[in-house]
Write a structure and sequence with these properties.
alpha+beta; elongated; Glucose Permease (Domain IIA); Nuclear Transport Factor 2, Chain: A; single chain
């Protein structure tokens, strides 16, 4: 008892008092939480969100939050630690790009390269460079090669050289993939042209195809570009009407070249030789450079493919009045219609029917805006009712076959827009549709020898390819017929 009492020290008493106090303080809380028991008989009183539950809920939320934040942090720490331990460090010399040399470059006038944007005209390009119409006129007047500037394509490049005041000093362009023209401003304001051949490589190709649908489809199948198909059609345009005459089964063999600059494809070159079999007729074309530098296509026997005169000098047209006696729609009486009328929308380009010299250009009574061209000593062609003339042409100008000389209109005595086209032989009007056109002159005996020597290997190649493909076609035909009879 004494021992027992002795053990009841003030320290123990105080501890017991604290315990009692604690129990009293939390009895309220414990009783409230009694229903959280797993025992079935626990009371299930509906309770509101009181302070205790806010505390418990908050605590649980905080624990979850710490877990979510803490685990990845620890994970990364652990991972980083292991990676670092497994990697051995090494110092490498870093290759830096060379520093820009802009600052070292001396200040000199530099050519500015301008790329043609879709729909942009040359005059707009000049305006954008702060240059005037006078500059453009000087460029266009500088030489014959400026024709290429009238047909610029998006992506083509032209170069400008201007002085400190912005005055045009030079202009540079490439009329084709193999030529560069540099124009320099002279003291009198005109521009002088220097033509340079660009260092190019020409790679020769062969293509052979058979027409099943369109010429373009056949060309594509044979590996020809669209431009090369157009060139092929252009070569044979005097003999074959590719809209009306083309037949299924027509075939072609082409030798052409592509131009490469610095090893990169730069554009299609020329058709060097070609054969076209249209409806069973063989047509051949060989490119030949004459001693005067002019280039033309000749058939295998040395006849130029280019015909004397075009019978229809407008595209996309119908004949609205033919040659001969007729009741004149405006004059009201019968008289000879000296030409053929081709109805076409106002503004349709009119082409020179053949090479020649302009002998009249201006207003002429019933003809309205009128041009006559002397094509040969015997043949003259005439073009009436034009809405306007092509710029840069005057009496004495030399025109080439197919060149645009004006545009369809209805000036003079005309009831609607059309081209009145005449062919005069020794001054007498003849029916353009039936008149015998001047025969192209064959190559002279001396040139013929050069031509034969130059084209002989091509002729052999083309015949070999065509024969081989024909043999293949016959073999497959035989097989097909054998299969059909079985
Ligand atoms: Zn007429």
């Amino acid at each position: 008892m004494d021992r027992h009492l002795r053990r009841v020290t003030p320290h123990v008493v105080r501890r017991q008092a604290i315990r009692r106090k604690t129990r009293q303080c939390h009895s309220h809380f414990y009783s409230r939480c009694a229903h959280w028991s797993f025992h079935a008989e626990a009371p299930l009183a509906a309770l509101g969100w009181t302070r205790e539950r806010w505390i418990l809920g908050g605590g649980a939320f905080l624990l979850a939050l710490l877990t979510l934040l803490g685990i990845p942090a620890w994970a990364s720490v652990i991972q980083h630690d292991t990676v670092v331990k497994s990697v051995t460090r090494e110092t490498l010399a870093l290759q830096l790009p060379p520093a820009p040399k802009e600052a070292l470059r001396p200040v000199v006038a530099a050519w500015k390269v301008v790329e043609v944007q879709p729909g942009e005209t040359l005059s707009e390009i000049f305006q954008a460079q702060g240059l005037s119409g006078t500059d453009l006129a000087a460029v266009m007047a500088s030489g014959k090669d400026t024709g290429a500037l009238k047909t610029l394509h998006p992506g083509d490049q032209v170069e400008f050289l201007t002085d400190a005041k912005g005055q045009l000093q030079g202009f540079r362009y490439e009329p084709d993939s193999a030529t560069q023209v540099t124009l320099t401003t002279q003291a009198d304001g005109s521009m002088r042209a220097q033509v340079a051949a660009l260092p190019v490589e020409r790679r020769m190709h062969f293509a052979h195809g058979e027409v099943q649908g369109s010429l373009f489809a056949a060309g594509e199948k044979a590996g020809l570009s669209e431009t090369m198909v157009l060139k092929l059609a252009d070569v044979f345009k005097y003999d074959i009407d590719f809209i009306k005459d083309l037949q299924k089964g027509d075939r072609f063999t082409v030798v052409y070249d592509d131009i490469y600059r610095n090893g990169k494809y730069s554009g299609g070159g020329n058709i060097i030789a070609a054969e076209f079999v249209n409806n069973g007729h063989h047509y051949t074309a060989y490119r030949f450079k004459e001693p005067d530098g002019s280039v033309a296509y000749f058939s295998q026997d040395g006849r130029p493919l280019r015909k004397g005169l075009l019978r229809t000098p407008v595209a996309f047209t119908r004949i609205s009045s033919s040659f001969g006696m007729r009741h004149h729609p405006i004059l009201g009486y019968n008289r000879l219609h000296k030409g053929v009328d081709y109805a076409a929308p106002t503004g349709t380009p009119i082409h020179a029917a053949g090479d020649g010299v302009i002998t009249f250009r201006g207003r002429s009574h019933g003809y309205g805006n009128f041009i006559t061209i002397r094509n040969t000593s015997k043949y003259t062609t005439a073009y009436g009712h034009m809405s306007r003339f092509a710029s840069g042409l005057h009496v004495g100008s030399h025109v080439t076959q197919g060149e645009v000389i004006g545009y369809v209109g209805q000036t003079g005595m005309a009831t609607g827009p059309h081209l009145h086209y005449e062919v005069r032989v020794n001054g007498q009007p003849e029916n353009p549709l039936t008149v015998t056109m001047p025969k192209p002159e064959p190559l002279s005996t001396k040139l013929m020898a050069d031509f034969r020597a130059q084209t002989a290997p091509m002729v052999a190649r083309i015949q070999m390819i065509d024969n081989a493909t024909q043999r293949l076609a016959r073999v497959s035909d035989d097989r097909a017929s054998v299969a059909a009879t079985n």
